[in-house]
Amino acid sequence: MRVSLDIVNARRERLRQLIRVDGFLPVAEICRRLEISAATARRDLAVIAGEGHITRTRGGALADYNASFDSLAQRSHRARRPKERIALAALALLPAKGTVFLDAGTTILAVARALGRQRDRTAGLTFVTNNLSVATVLGTHEDIDLHVLGGTFLRRQAALLGGDAVRALHNWHFDLALLGGEGMDADGITNSHPEIAAFQKTVCERTPRTLFCLDATKLGRTTPHRVARWGEFAGLVTDATAKQVAAAGIRIPSRQLLHAS
Hints:
Elements: H1 5-22, E1 24-26, H2 27-34, H3 38-50, E2 54-57, E3 60-63, H4 65-68, H5 72-75, H6 80-91, E4 98-102, H7 106-117, E5 125-129, H8 132-139, E6 145-148, E7 152-154, E8 159-161, H9 163-169, E9 176-179, E10 183-185, E11 188-191, H10 194-205, E12 210-213, E13 225-229, E14 235-238, H11 242-247, E15 257-259
Parallel strand pairs: 4-5, 4-9, 5-6, 9-12, 12-14, 14-15
Antiparallel strand pairs: 1-3, 2-3, 7-8, 10-11, 11-13
């Protein structure tokens, strides 16, 4: 049955909106949400990609990062309470002394804000970040030893990334790294921006102890770039319960699942 052009255009506009909101959508999820076949989904994606609104990826589509990915300020209001609980749980895991890396993203920004309120936790520690928002929060406290890595500015994350930032990492070894992410699925942690994923992988190589801090809304979500697989890092700090984690198909040792109550 031939579908009218108006219906096709309306469906494609809906698809643009879904990808813009989610950042990344696999073909299977597009089919489920729009109730269309995989062949129709791929035809629609080809048209939208040709218009420059998205980037086709293996098995799905990715929104243009700087045009569509919500800014740090926009994202900081989402799941605020869970992120605050995660931040407090992460603070309890800081070493007594040493060097700590703080990643970009709103959950790690919540950690920085919590540090500003509990500066007894910062004594004996050196903090390193590529996150200008984290630097702004911690930089107001003269007693905090803070270092900021240089790089190319990614405005949606307020982060410094790229080759210069990765090279700067090689001047450091961290006792602990607190990292964020956009998704956690059965295989591990993902992000949608390739430079973020490359940077985070390098951070993981520079520390014996990486903790990913993700709230429960990231459960079951997969974005194009794999950062780390379960078992490759020290633990997950999350407000998600063990039951929720298991329901998402994630198999992680209980000692590595650090629940933020």
